[in-house]
TrEMBL record:
Signal peptide: none annotated. PANTHER family: PHOSPHO-2-DEHYDRO-3-DEOXYHEPTONATE ALDOLASE, PROTEIN AROA(G). The lineage of its organism: Bacteria, Pseudomonadati, Bacteroidota, Sphingobacteriia, Sphingobacteriales. This is chorismate mutase. Residues 269-360 form the Chorismate mutase domain. It is an enzyme of class 5 (isomerase). Gene3D superfamilies: Aldolase class I, Chorismate mutase. It comes from Mucilaginibacter straminoryzae. InterPro entries: Aldolase_TIM, Chorismate_II_sf, Class-I_DAHP_synthase, CM_dom_sf, CM_II_prokaryot, DAHP1/KDSA. The keyword Transferase applies. Residues 268-295 form a coiled coil. The keyword Coiled coil applies. One of its GO terms (biological process) is chorismate metabolic process.
Amino acid sequence: MKLDLKIQPLSSWITAKKQPLLIAGPCSAETEEQLVATAHLLAKTGRVTALRAGIWKPRTRPGEFEGIGSIGLEWLKRAKAETGLPTAVEVATGKHVEEALKAGVDIFWVGARSTVNPFTVQEIADALKGVDIPVMVKNPVNPDLSLWIGALERINNAGITKLAAIHRGFSSFEKTAFRNEPMWDLAINLKTHAPDLPIINDPSHISGNRELIPYVSQKALDLDMQGLMIESHIDPSVAWTDAKQQLTPAALDDLVGRLTLRQPETASSEVKDKLAELRNQIDKLDDLVIQKLAERMQIVEKIGQYKKDNGITILQVNRWDEILQKRTQYGKALKLEADFTEKLLELIHSESIRKQTEIMNQSQAPVQEKLTHA
Ligand code: PEP
Ligand code: MN
């Protein structure tokens, strides 16, 4: 399903100083000196297109630093005047929108904790009616593509066409190496729903630590995301928020300089031919996979009917364990990641169970009552 968004191309509202497009700045504006000095160092790298800073901070727990507030807008004005960098802030209420507009902020973003709440997003959208300003919408905290799309639609319906999404990862129950699980599939899914919508990656909030940022940034560029938003602080060790994930401007310069830029398309006909040949092979194999899955499901249906006729339960845990173990071992021998094989089997298994449940619950064809006439 293609979304009906009216979007202007990214180039109509932001021009990358250098590739990749980079929005950088501290998690929070803390003091005038910290913000202005960071902005100068970022501008000096020649890589940064816009300066970000949180003025109002949505904090999980009360009592943590909740942002410096409106005074920070004055500091942003000064940073912009001295460096020429356009500015970006998070807005979470209608009042934030009003104040940030008055202060001449160039780009707004909606934070992950706001995107989850349609009331909040609608309030921001209402305050944006009749205003021509770029807005970037972060994904919601939870992995819910509809919420992300809904927020983009609300902002777009308010007349904002300079629109982008920011992929900042998702909160998950399982603790992994990431602060927020990237769940790249969700961002790719958004791209297929809205191919014209630019997606900017936020490796800082996905990673939660400095070490993972290069890996996440490279992956985002390889997935053809249009830019990066990275937190940078003049001295991360004393940052008031997100200290572990912020980079000095020099470290940011170094990191971005090491990223490899690849092109989504190529002009070389030799490369195109080779790619087409390999894709052709993949298409044939995919067709085979689908065909085999369909054959598997036909057998599943037979088994379902057989179990039903013989009063046997759908699930036999031992049998499922055996499939999982044997196939994962086999996959390993063929150089497939165990995790991949397991996920694939689980998907196939749950569809098999669904099919068998359907069969079990089908009512018998109505038995024709024999009418005996006396
Ligand atoms: C931020 O950008 O500093 C921020 C609060 O991010 P998120 O909304 O992604 O948590
Ligand atoms: Mn932050």
